[in-house]
Amino acid sequence: MAKPSTGLSTFFFHKKRWLLLLLAMLSVSTAVAFIIRAAYDSSCDHRQHFNDVPGVGNRIQKTKDTQIGVTSSPLSFMKSKLVLLVSHELSLSGGPLLLMELAFLLRGVGAEVCWITNQKPSGTDEVIYNLENKMLDRGVQVFSAKGQEAINTALKADLVILNTAVAGKWLDAVLTKNVPKVLPKVLWWIHEMRGHYFKLDYVKHLPYVAGSMIDSHVTAEYWENRTQERLKIKMPKTYVVHLGNSKELMDVAEDNVAKRVLREHVRESLGVRNDDILFAAINSVSRGKGQDLFLKSFYESLLLIKEKKLQVPSIHAVIVGSDMSVQTKFETELRDFVAQKKIQHRVHFVNKTLTVAPYLAAIDVLVQNSQGRGECFGRITIEAMAFQLPVLGTSAGGTAEIVVNGSTGFLHPAGKEGVTPLATNIVKLATHVEKRLTMGKRGYERVKQMFLERHMADRIAAVLKDVLHAANARQ
Ligand SMILES: *[C@@H]1O[C@H](CO)[C@@H](O)[C@H](O)[C@H]1NC(C)=O
Ligand SMILES: *[C@@H]1O[C@H](CO)[C@@H](O)[C@H](O)[C@H]1NC(C)=O
Ligand SMILES: *[C@@H]1O[C@H](CO)[C@@H](O)[C@H](O)[C@H]1NC(C)=O
User: Does the CB atom of residue 395 touch ligand 3 within 6 A?
Assistant: First the structure.
């Protein structure tokens, strides 16, 4: 017999099983292959995507299916249309998972959706197997990138969506003489902005496709410039489509009980007390993501606090996304810095994880310190804002289009000249509780206004309508 005192665990068991799943996933990383990441960390190099799942299982995915009303979706005009999705690879990284989200949105309105993966490792791969099954379960047809079926589908399709610049290689390799017939109905979704993607090999057909869709204004502008200057080719009609948060992530972000449980759990595991202030960088650890400069700023902020004798709670930093095996030299450099400055008790390293939601629930401020041209978009930024967190970000790339300086966070310059401004901003948010909370709330409001899955679907719908129209006119 259930006594009232067992209420909490009973409650979680019956109503919040996914929460338990989330907690379990913090320690059992093998579970991740079954989980689709709903978040997209749009680093500009898909090979370095940080794979994170705000972490919800099949159950939630299924509920979502039934929630999408065919009539209420902005994509409902895609009903019965045949869409071929061409993914450069299939993995738990940002690009492919974002394309899968689109596949499911299209399935939700009754479109016929086919999926091919251009680059697959030889042999069996558990992640690919699981992701393909997930798609098959939801009525997406999955077939080989190279066979006749791929060619026939491309010829028959109403729309072909190429995902990432690299996927361009598929056109010549597979379609050969049919390329010109297919180009007028190709929508090219681009998430990269590093130099080595500006290769004619990948993108020579770009001028002839129906349109390109890019995650931020600054990335679109960059492509416009680089294609013209370097490759002497012209971009097709280009649409900027900011991404949105998945329903799954919003469900966790808006569930105060879940957030509290996750917060306590994560803080306990890190040895951070409830009233300590926790600043986090959640990205794959690499120089491009600027964790080294973040730690320098963090150290400077500790000095500032000491020097000015400020009365603030104790502050901590956590770097989520470590992978010693990949960035050994850089990772070692970070740890050496921490040891040398004797701040080991304040800086925590967490391995790369597929579940970011628990960390977003546990922290007080997100630091998005991507360097150089910054993020193409940086989905972690809107995810953090959904959790009512202020963001301290570099004034670069997509971050500057998401964060409103002074309102939902503070922007600082990329590079060394950003170290002191970031330190000052850390101190500001540590000293002014009210400001921190207000900024978090404003960030959340901004997400509700423009960065939900619904908004992304609206934006994509407008693009698809236009592209279909253009494709029909050219055929
Ligand atoms: C694109 O080129 C223009 C003119 O040269 C320049 O002002 C702008 O900053 C460039 N934009 C990007 C994103 O590179
Ligand atoms: C983190 O990863 C390293 C290897 O890269 C491993 O040795 C260590 O045990 C991992 N830590 C946790 C908590 O899983
Ligand atoms: C952000 O706003 C602060 C004032 O709130 C200002 O000092 C700073 O220069 C601004 N940064 C950027 C990158 O606009």
Answer: yes
